[in-house]
Each structure stands twice: as C-alpha cells, then as structure tokens.
Amino acid sequence: MPGIVVTARTASVRYPLRSTALPKLPAIAIASRKHVLPVQRRQFATLPARRPSPYPVSGNARPFHRPPESPGPFLHDLILVRIASTSAQAGRKNKVFGFLTRCAAFLGSSVLVLGIGVAGFFLYDASTYKEEAELADINVSDLALDPRRGGPKNLPIAEVLIDDNDNEEMEKQQEKPKLVILGGGWGSVALLKHLNLGEYHVTVISPHNYFLFTPMLPSATVGTLEMRSLVEPIRRVLARVRGHFIRAQAEDVDFSSKLIEVSQTDAHGNDSRFYVPYDKLVIAVGSVTNPHGVKGLEYCHFLKDIDDARKIRNSVMHNLELSCLPTTSDEERRRLLSFVVSGGGPTGVEFAAELFDLLNEDLTRRFPKLLRNEISVHIIQSRGHILNTYDEQVSKYAEARFARDQINVLTNSRVSEVQPDRIVFTQKTPGPDGGITAKELPTGFCLWSTGVSQTDFCQRLAAQLGQSQTNKRALETDTHLRLNGTPMGDVYAIGDCATVQNNIANHIVSFLRKLAWKHGKDPEKLQLSFQEWRAVASDVRKRFPQAMGHLRRLDKLFSEYDKDKSGTLDFGELRELLTEIDSKLTSLPATAQRAHQQGQYLGHKFNKLAHASPGLKANDIREGDLDDAIFNTFEYRHLGSLAYVGNSAVFDRGGGWNFSGGLWAVYAWRSVYFAQSVSFRTRFLMMMDWAKRGLFGRGKYSMRPQSPWSCQCLTRVVTSRSYELLRAKAKQGNGEGIS
Ligand SMILES: Cc1cc2nc3c(=O)[nH]c(=O)nc-3n(C[C@H](O)[C@H](O)[C@H](O)COP(=O)(O)OP(=O)(O)OC[C@H]3O[C@@H](n4cnc5c(N)ncnc54)[C@H](O)[C@@H]3O)c2cc1C
C-alpha cells in the first residue's frame, strides 16, 4: 500500500484512494522508515488531535489553514506515518477498513438517491391527480352536433367535428385543407410524425384506436412482451398535429364529391353510416391474411392484430393445461401439444421460434416434464425453403437452427384443408420425377400465416376505378403514390394496401408517341440516336427510381438492343428494351419498412405542397402535375430484413450481404426494433418486459375465456375421449356398449 512516500527533501503523505494535491509533512518526517517512530513519539503531545480536511469546502465551512501555533505534523499525519511503517498486516487492515468505509458510503448515497427518486416520483404522481373537475363552457358548432345530410346516399356529412372548436389553434386549423388518413398503422403514423403542425386539418379514421408495432407481435403471443408494450394510442400520435380521430371503418369513397362513407356500430348495436369530406385522402388500410381458398380456416388462428395475439396466447396455455389433466389420453395429449404453423415466412418463423422459446425455457420449469417430450412444432411451407424471400444462406441457417431445436420444417408442402383436430396437406418430393404425397398431422393448434391479400374496402375501390386498377392484390399507384384512376393529387395509397405500378414500357412508349406526333412524325418510324436514348433513360430514372439499377450501362443496353446495328434504336427495339426492364422490376415488399418510408415521403411532400400553395394560388395554378413540379417520385430504399429464429437472429441486407448469429444477434435485433419503436413509453415498457422475462420468465396464464370454436374443439375432444372409453369397455365385454 502506498500509504506514505518519503523523500529526503520533503515527505508527503499519499492518502489512500485520494489523488488530490498532497499536504506536505514538515521536516520532521525523515527519509528512512526506521527513524519515523522516535520522531512521532517526540511530537505526539504537541500535535492537534484532528487533521482538518485538505480539500476546499463550500458554503459556510472555512477552508483549511494550518494553525500557526502547530507548525509540526498533525496527529493524523503521524498516525498514517506510523501505520505505514508498521507491519504489512496493519496495512491490509487499513485497506479493508477503507474499502468497507467506501462501500458503506456508496451504499448510503445510493439509498439516499433512491429515496430521493422514490419521493420525487410520488410527488410527481400526486401532482397528476385532479381533485376538481375542469368544467367550463365549450364552443361546439351546431353543424358538428347536427350534421347536414347530403352526398349520393343522403347520409350525415361530418363537415365540422365536435372538437374543432376546442381551442383557438384548432379553430384556425378549420380553414386548412382537410387531410383524411384511413388507417392507423405504419404508413399513417409515419405520415403523421413527419407532417408539420398547422398545415392541414388532419383526421384519422380507423376501427382501432391504437398503432400496433407488428414486428414484435409474435413475442406477445407467448408473453415475452406484454401487449400494451406494442401499442400506442393513435390520439397520442395525433396530438402533435392537433388532429382528430374517428373510430370507424371506411366503407367506400365517392371520388367525384370527395366524400368517404364511414360505418360504425352505434350504442344500440345498429350500423350507423356517415360521410367524411376530404381535400386530400390517404388510404393506408393495410391488408388481410390470404386464405388461399383453403377450407376450414375457422379452426386456425391468425396473427395480424393484438387481439389475435391474445387469442393465441390463451389457446397455447389452454392446450398446455388440458394436457396436464389426468383424464387426457396419451394420444390426445400429443395432439393438443402438436403446434402447426402454416406458412414459412417471417411471421410464421418468428412465431415458431417464440413458441419454442416458451416451451424450452419456461415450460420445463413450471409444467410436468412429460409435456416437453410430447410437444411438437411443425412449419408447413409451400416453397423449397423457409424465409424464401431472404438470401438462401439465411434460410439454410434458419432451417439448421430449427432442425437443432427439433422444429419440424415441412417444405414443398401445401395445406389443402384444416379440420378441428388435424391439418391435411400434400408434399411434393423434390426433383423432376418427384411425386405428390397426401399427408396429415393431428393438431391442437394451427396458425395460418400465408401472406397477405386485399381488404374488402380496397377491393370495392378497385372495382369502382375499373380499368385503372388491374392488380388483384393491391391498389395501384403511380410513382408519386397517387391512386391510379382518381383526380390527380386528391387520393394517395400507401403501405400494404398499395403497390407502385412499374409500367415503364407503356409510360415511355406513350410519351414517345406524343413527342413524335408533336413533331409531326410517325412514332413507328421513330429512330433514337444514342444521345436521345440517354435522354429517355434519364427520364425513366426520374419517373421510376426503382429502375435505376437496370439502367447503369446505357451503351451496353443500346448496342444489345440495336438488333439491326443501324446505330439507332427504332420504336420496336426500344419497346423490347423497356419491356425487358419492366419484367425485371419486382413489386415492393409488403413490409412495415416500406409503409414507413411511404408515409415519411408523403409527410415531406404534403409539407412542401402546403408551403407552395400560397404561391400556386397567387398564380392561379390549380391544374397540372403539382406533385411532379414540387417533389421527386417515391424511391424505396431497402434497409434489410430481420428475423428472429429462436435465441438467434438473421439479417439480410440484400445483394448477398447477410449475417446470422446467436444471442449477440438477438440483442442487435432487439436494438433495431427498440430504436424503431414509436414512443419513449413503448420503449420503456419493452425494456421492462425483457428484464421481467429474464427475472421471472414469461407470463404463463390465460387471460380470457376461450373463443367459441376452441370450446367446440374442447367439447369434441372430451366427446371423442368418452367415445374411446366406451369402446374400450365394450371390448372388455362388461355389458356396456355403444350404438
Ligand atoms: C406478425 C407480423 C409481423 C411483422 N413483422 C414485420 C417485420 O418484422 N418487418 C416489417 O417490415 N414488416 C413486418 N410486418 C408487416 C407490417 O406489419 C406491415 O407491412 C405494415 O403493418 C403495413 O403497414 P400499413 O400502414 O400498410 O398497414 P397496417 O399497419 O396494417 O395498418 C392498417 C390500419 O388500417 C386500419 N384499417 C383497416 N381497414 C380499415 C378501413 N376499412 N377503414 C379504416 N381503417 C382501416 C387498421 O385498423 C390499421 O390501423 C409484420 C406483420 C405482422 C402481422
């Protein structure tokens, strides 16, 4: 221990664990240890008892001055000198004592800080309660309370909303263009978060009054995360732009009179309908699970909403508890514990992984061991690999991981029917001569997760817009995200419900036709030089940013498609070239990432349009392609795909760049979603849930009675069991039988 440092000229004491300027011992301290003790003895009686602190003090305390009447060393100094000069054991004791003192000080200050924190929290909490009700006269427009009727169906029109006069700012906002957003999901929330305050009169219409953080939904099905940690009230998000919320469902849109028909079940259970007018409409209603025309989906669970997660959690727990009953036969137990996931995409894979975690980490601790041995998890996938939209390396990693965890992956398999207690499917043997085998699996639980399709509302709109909408899966928009077939700049569609049309060939060919006619030429006889081809390519890049990657080597493309080697591209050659590029473009993925980017894009664009509108009005510019004049087309940037595969995670950045790994990748995966979470509140709750899982495990309880069909299953289970028992007795010939 460096308790003392003694030099020939000055002796200085180094106090343990302090590193400030050291007080100097007067000449009394001698260079060699053996001389120290006698000196101490001599000076002992004349020294002051305590050594004042050498550190500067604040407040009323006085700084330390060495008392002039005691020029020699202080008692404390000398005690240290003595301690340092005695045996090593004494030094160690001193070290231990110092350590204990510091621990006690640390503990004391921690308790103090904690105490202050708790007291502060209670003070804050107490301040959030209100004793007195805030009652005051409120201005509400008569039109809001008694809307006028009109529109094609003569329904009430919600021109003024009941909170439009809640404060001065909201009153002012009534003058702004009415922006109505259908849906409160990824696309809508991204748009709301990027919209400037006060530029629009914003209204969100959605049957759900919360935003759901879907990427973490599989974690909520098994209790890794709580459901409330994944949802954010939409009114909270709207507060930033002083927006309005209507909890209802959009049924139809009358594009000519700019009215949205909305429905809601009223307090008496009746269907009530009304119109909401708009100046700008954004359709972001998402999608529904694709049933693929399979029979018996009423016996399946889906995973789209928070209610689905709740039902799944209840069902899993219910099956586990049923399996523990003494009256459950072995066969029945195996069936109840056979969990089937139909669909090997990210949602199905993540659910299977979460389920495995629950069974592996929590079940073994709290449920009878027999259950662990009898549980089986199966994934039925129609393609050759699970996660087939990811790089093959990633898919193989996930498959290997599942094989290790004994999750049964059935590839090249298609479900043909779901029955209450089994799932029927066909499996194709790989290879050119591969046959198709019909198979079935007894199951107590089936999750249907096989891609997405259009909502009824979108199908109605597509039908209404006729020829402009040719895609069966989603509403088509142009690259400015404007819904095809609607008046330009009025209606936009984003997220899962929409797809950006990639008809480069048609677009450019009609553009060239117009150009040719304008110059009095026959388009069919058009000959493009290399320079002209470069100009066309630059226009294609601007209008269709997704085609950028296919228009890199213009010279190569030119020479490749100049079939007659004339040094020019004729109309036919150009059409062939552009059609080839068209065929290489794939639709944008139906992901939160895309919906978010599109919402963000619209937010920025609407802000810019709002800024430009006074100038446009002043110049009386109302017609024309304002979006194109003011903002670039939408360009999707793929940031990569992530998936959780059971205590490990995979990341596919695209272009062959990917990685996968164990727990460190899981933490990276969590960090990404933690950062993307919608608010501080949800981040905080997610963090607490992860900590809670580590400390106490997942919540292993059901929260609501089973859904009616599960009860039917249960009745059926019990009935079939009674049937078996009766038959067994009949076989034994004890007089009882069955008819
Ligand atoms: C379990 C699960 C996990 C997922 N994981 C990922 C992931 O890890 N990464 C990723 O990028 N994507 C993921 N996705 C996909 C992602 O959730 C969707 O692509 C995204 O939600 C699409 O956003 P959206 O705004 O188009 O629609 P949604 O977010 O689905 O929102 C649609 C909104 O419209 C409302 N609505 C529906 N019908 C109407 C109507 N008629 N009128 C008014 N409102 C209506 C709904 O209530 C909802 O509020 C996952 C999806 C699921 C289900």
UniProtKB/TrEMBL annotation:
- What is this entry's stated membrane topology? Peripheral membrane protein
Keyword Transmembrane helix attributed: yes
Q: Which residues form the signal peptide?
A: none
Report the residue ranges that make up the EF-hand domain in this protein. Answer: 549-584
Q: SMART domains under this entry?
A: EFh
Q: Does the keyword Transmembrane helix apply?
A: yes
Question: Where is this protein found?
Answer: Mitochondrion inner membrane
> What GO annotations for molecular function exist for this entry?
calcium ion binding; NADH dehydrogenase activity
PANTHER family in the record: NADH DEHYDROGENASE (PTHR43706), NADH DEHYDROGENASE (UBIQUINONE)-RELATED (PTHR43706:SF50)
Q: What is this protein called?
A: Mitochondrial nadh dehydrogenase protein
